[in-house]
Amino acid sequence: MNLKPMIYEYRVSAPRKDFYNITSEVREAVAKSGVQDGIAVVYCPHTTAGITINENADSNVVRDLLLGLDKAFPDRPEFRHEEGNSTAHLKASAIGSSATVIVNKGKLVLGTWQGIFFCEFDPPRERTFFVKVVG
Ligand code: ZN
After folding, report:
1. SS3 of 29, please?
2. What spacing in Å lies between the alpha carbon of 90 and ligand 1's midpoint?
């Protein structure tokens, strides 16, 4: 058992509303940690962005997810939040602010088609996310 859980900080430059593939950064954090068996928590400390795991093979899946989120959470005139980005807050809450991935034999346990994404809903932004690896 690793008694010193490690945390790694990364930046994402997010010029547009999109899902940014951060799988390689998470793999790097796991490798740096030296943890062989445990979990990696990927966490986004922002209120208009999120973290999700979804298909990494066909980029149209991300396109369709963005389209679906726009349809599910349209901007509404009755919103009161003065910043004017309540639709981005809604999408961020629907997607969630973290993902947990199992680490087995030093590797992320991801399906063949899965990737880990930072989801930007209120661009352009310079963002941060954290990876905490616990063995
Ligand atoms: Zn806001």
Report:
1. helix
2. 10
Distance, CA 80 to ligand 1 centroid (Å)? 10
Which of these, 101, 97, 99, 103, lies nearest to 32 by C-alpha position? 103
Pick the CATH number of 6-74+86-134 from 3.40.605.10, 3.40.50.1220, 2.60.120.460, 3.40.50.11190: 2.60.120.460
pLDDT tens by residue, 56-85: 999 999 999 999 999 999 999 999 999 999
Q: Which amino acid, one-letter code, is at 65?
A: L
Kindly give the distance from the C-alpha atom of residue 123 to the centroid of ligand 1, in angstroms, as a whole number.
12
Residue 76 neighbours by CB under 8 Å, 6+ apart: 86, 87
Expressed in angstroms and rounded, the spacing between residue 3 Cα and the centre of ligand 1 is 38
Cα of 48 from ligand 1 centre, angstroms: 7
pTM: 0.95
